[in-house]
Every structure is written in structure tokens, then in C-alpha cells.
TrEMBL record:
PROSITE patterns registered for this protein in UniProt: PAS
Pfam families in the record: GAF_2, PAS_4, SpoIIE
Keyword Hydrolase: yes
Name the record gives this protein: SpoIIE family protein phosphatase
Record's compositionally biased regions (Basic residues): 734-745
Gene3D superfamilies: 3.30.450.40, PAS domain (3.30.450.20), PPM-type phosphatase domain (3.60.40.10)
Biased composition (Gly residues): 309-322
Amino acid sequence: MRDPVAPGPAAGSGPRLLDPVFTQVVRDTGASGGMLYLLPPGERTLRLAVLLGAPPEIVTPWVRVSLDAPIPVADAVRERRLVWLGGREEMARRYPRPALVLPYSFVMAAAPVSTDVAVWGGLVLMWPGSHPSRPSPHERGLISAACRRMGLLLGHAAGTGRPMLPGPQPHVLTRPRTHTPGRGEALAAADFAERLPEGCCSLRLDGRIAFVDSTAAELLGADVDELLGALPWRALPWLHDPAFEDRYRDAVIGRRPTSFTALRPPDHWLSFQLYPDATGISVRILPALEHVEEAPPPREPRDGEGTEDAGGAGGVEGGAGGLPRSPAPATPSGVTALYHLMHLAATLTEAVGARDVVDRAADQLLPAFGAEGIMLFVAEHGRLRVVGHRGYGSEVADHFDGMRLTTGESPAARTLSTGVPAFFDSPGELERSYPGLAAWTGKGAWAFLPLIASGRPVGSLVLSHARPHAFAPDERAALTSIAGLIAQALDRARLFDVKDQLAHRLQAGLLPHTLPQVPGLDVASRYLPAGRGMGVGGDFYDLIRLGPASAGAAIGDVQGHNVTAAALMGQVRTAVHATAGAPPGEVLSRTNRLLTDLDPGLFTSCLYVHVDLARHTARLASAGHLPPVLRHPDGHTEVLDLPPGLLLGIDPTADYPTTEIALPPGAVLALYTDGLVEVPGTDLEDSIAEFAGHLEHAGHQHMRALADTLLRRAGRPAPRADDTALLLLSPHHGTGRPRRPPAPR
């Protein structure tokens, strides 16, 4: 039998090729649902490609996941390990942000979809809360095997020039039924339900009513035709309460029966009992015999709620314009809107720049509200500047960039100057107020929201739909609240950007712009900032030409990730430069005495190397720095065992022994900082040995190509928690001794 996931002419294309393996691991592990993420080439954002066992609305906050996000699947992919969460409490302790949006009882596993050479995505599986809190060896084996098979398939597709890429929306799979009833069986089942004294209805996983009997319709006070295909909390205004929708989510995700009691006005208390499985939810509806005190408090529907003409202007610019209401999924309400709001608030607290705010807002708002476009402006010097957009072409952004705030030439400027949101449900509405604008944007409906923080105008947010869309009152209220959150985040982000630019200018001035050319020595250097935080730290490197056949090289790491660390790094580099040429131990001793006199309160590791190209040797001294790796001319590598020495800045009398090694032509000496090799959960010595293996198997390349290869194989430039510096030194043949001048002819 042919492997069901082996590529072939009839296998199809895109992520659907992975469906057989994905559904098999869900079935074999007994998971209630799963998600498959893909990592497109050159990107640092995981994108949800395949979904099984949950409605898309519930997973909307995680359709796109940044690799540095505090999310289980991001950790699994970034660290190449299985992440297992044994229950609700463990989720809340380790990952509070997703736990805030999914406060239900379930067990989760996240694993990298990878091969030996690359990571292609991530797999997420979920079980009911009754599942054992720890994985069995059998489950681990099934998950590992499935991830490897999918990784091989993805690698094969990429190798043939046809990489599998996620679609614009996740591919939603449904579990096949073990038995499909015929027409006669279906009619018999309906007759059975009709004869029961209680009401019966069936919900699909997305919450919509798939079946309802006449008794249930009578108890609910609605016609069967009105209920079929509708969300209960939308079709029945008295069920429009976040607590009721929350019970449905609990049943879908936790896969456990639940119930609630609700008041159907004026005085009919009804009991709802929900029984979920992998294909949907069966609901029993019957009169409540007595009032349940802990039942969610009832409320009367607001004016216009649940009616066709709901969605009036409500005192803001624009209006419904007589348009039909948009499909329900485009307008989150109740507990869905509440969870989107909480998730966005938690997400924005981690934004570290204006561009980051744009990306996080777009990742959450577009799928949550069914929108197709977003544009974010900041107010600067009396104008609105575009800081980011999605769903618009660059020519549209350029057209609106720099508009004056003092004129009414656009609703983005007017809404900020007045502080009043503006909603336009159709191109005709926008055209009447702003002629020509609708054609420029190419959209069908717009929400223009002012971004105001602490009473100060920060900017404007534009959220747009591709087609006409009636903004319901609940949606307008949710968007207005979200605008306040984005305004605060953008205000903080702009301050961060100013500090970040200052820090980077400082660091750029302290690190060498170019390395000197030393005859007979090939060199390459790389510096990468940390993936999160200010992106500035104390890692440094340097190469100093000492003579026609000698050079000094240094690499080090100042404790901390701030401007102070960067400034101290500059002082250390200057001190090493000033004493270069002395024996390596003496260079470190003098630098150490300088730092202890300065007493900066920060410690520094440093490795100094004196390269003698004439004698083909190198002398090294270390102040608590990671051991260098030497690749010999025959290709085998060695992690050099140097006396560690004390960190600089602790004891002014510290001694730094010097070690001499052979450094013949063709050898490669690799100096690096801990950001290149440190991996959470992995022993540092093992990580250094793995790096040495990468150097050994990289082959003979030009130094710059070799540096890029080492960064790639070590997982950079994927985000890491620390800065990375790498310096490669390689003597080559034909130099080292000064050439004699040619004899006169």
C-alpha cells in the first residue's frame, strides 16, 4: 500500500496534502481537535493552515502567531520541543494570555513540525480536561512521528520548488461520521424527537442550529424556519448574554456536558442541557421546575437589538443606510467580543514598537471582525503619517500619508480632530461626504476611529470591509473600546521607538563599522540583536591589526540589555584596543583594572586572541567567556579548553593565564557569544558541541558564507532572548611572512 502522505501526481496541492497525517494523529491520540500551523519561507510568523474539531471563530486570535509570542506553539517551534499543558491551572500559570481567552478545562500539546535541517511549522492537539495531565510514551511517539512525516512532506515540496503555503483562511476539516443515516432513519429520528415531552435541538460546532423540533421551537417562542442555521444568541434576543455563549464554548472546547437556566420573557424559565461530541452539540430544552439562583441574570434586549433595522448611527457620523445586516461571523458580540477585547489588550501590552502595534492589531482585528483592510496613522507636526497597513496597496498608503489635521480632506483627520468615530456602511455613504475617497481605497465599508490617549490625540485607525457592511451597535461599541487600547499601546510604542533609535545609534557608533584587512587572514563577523526587548545590549567584537603578520581579536559580553550595557561595552572595547599588542593575559588584566576602578556595577566576559601569522600560532586568554571552537585544516573540530579566568570588573588582582595553540593555514577559529548557542532546556555544553558539529559539517566556504551558514543552522535569525556576536578567523596560504621586494633587473 502506498504511503498516504507520500507526494505523487494525484496527491493534490497545498496544505491539503497534509490532511491524512494530520487527521490520523488526531484520531490515533484520541484528541478532540487540532491545529496545524505552517511557517512560510523567510517569515517569522506561524499561520494557521488546517483546523479540526473547533469553529474558526474560537481560534481567531491565533490565526497568525509570531515566533516570539508567549504562545505554546511558538515556544514549541522556536525551541524545537514538545510543549505539554496538563490542564487549566498549568495553562494559566505558564501562558496567561491564551488562558484569559480560553478559561476552560482542556489538555494541550504543541510540537514542532520539523526535519533534521529545518522547522516547517507546528502542530497543536487538544483533549478534554479528563485526559491524563501527562503524556504517555505512546502519545509522544505518535506526535513525534506525525510531525516528522509532515516535515518530510513539506521539505520535499519545498525542494521541488512548490512549497506548501497556508491559504488566506484556515482549511477546516470535519470528522467523518461513523454512520450516515438514510432518509428513512432521519425521518424516524425526527419523529422520535417530536414524541418526546421536552425540546430537542442540535448545534454544529460553530454554534449554529442544525436541527430543532417543534417542541423546542414552541418553548423558545420562535418558528423552526427562523431558528435553523442561526446562532441561538442572535436569533433569540433574551439569550444575547455573554454567559450563555460562554457555556457553549465550554462544551465545545472542554468536550463535557454543561447546562444553564435562562428566562424567556416575561416569566418562562427554561433549562438548557448541552451534550457535546466531535461533530456538534445536542441540546435538551425543558421548562425549569424552579428558579436557579446562580443562573446568569436576565436582561431585556436593548432598543433595536436582534431586529433588521438595528445598527443606526447612534450619534456618530455615517449610518446603516438601509443595508441588510452582514453575516453573523463578521460581527462578534457577547462573549466572543469580550474575549477578543481581552486578548487584544494582553497582546498589545507586549508590543515594542509602532510597527509591532500595527502587526498585532491587524492579526487580531481583521479576522475577529471579518474585515479585509487596516491602516494606522500617527499624528506628527500637524499631519497624519501612515505607520503601517494591511490589505491596502502601497500607492493607497502613499496617497493618504502626510494629510493635514487642520483640514477636513479625509475622515481619518476629521475623526481625530473631533474625537468622534465615523462609520460608513457603503461606498455611496462615503462618497456623499468625501467625494472620490471610496474609489481610492477600493473598499466597501469603513470604520474611522480616533486614537486618543490620556486626552491627547495620538493618531487614527481605519478598519475596512471589502463589501458593504452594516456596523451594528455592539460592533461599534467594541471597536471604540479597542481604539482606546490601541491608542495607549501606540503612545507607549512611539516612546519606545525613540529610545530604541537612540540606543541603536549609540551601539552603531561603538561597534566597528568595518574590520581591518590583515594580509593572510580571512575574517567575517556578524552581530544580531535579541529578538525581543530594546534590541541593544553589550555584546561586542573587534579585530585589531598589530603588524604586517599579526592581529588581535576580541569578543565579549557585558551583563545587561540596555543603554548602560552598550556604553560599558564601548569602554571595554576602547580599553582592549589601547592595550592590544601586549600578551593576551596582560590585555585582560589592564582592562579588568580599568573596569574595577570605574565600578559600573556590571560584569563583562571577554576573550582576547593574538594571532601570529608568521609562526602560524594563536595565543588566547579568557575572562569567563565561552570557549572558542577550532576547526583544523582536515575538517575536524575541537572545543578549546582554556583556563576560564574571572569576569572583568570583579577583582582588580585577578590573573588571566595565556594558552598557545597552532593556527595553520586552512584552520578556522570561531569566537561567539552565548546568544548563538544558548537554548532553553538544553545543557550549554551540549549546545556548544552542536555548534562545533555545525562548523565541522559546513564544509570549506568563504568566511562570510560560512558565518551565514552557522547562524542559519544555529537557528538564527529566528528570535532569541539574547544578542549574538560571531567572529571567524582563518589564516590562508601564501602569506604570513613579509615578502621580499623583487630584485632589480
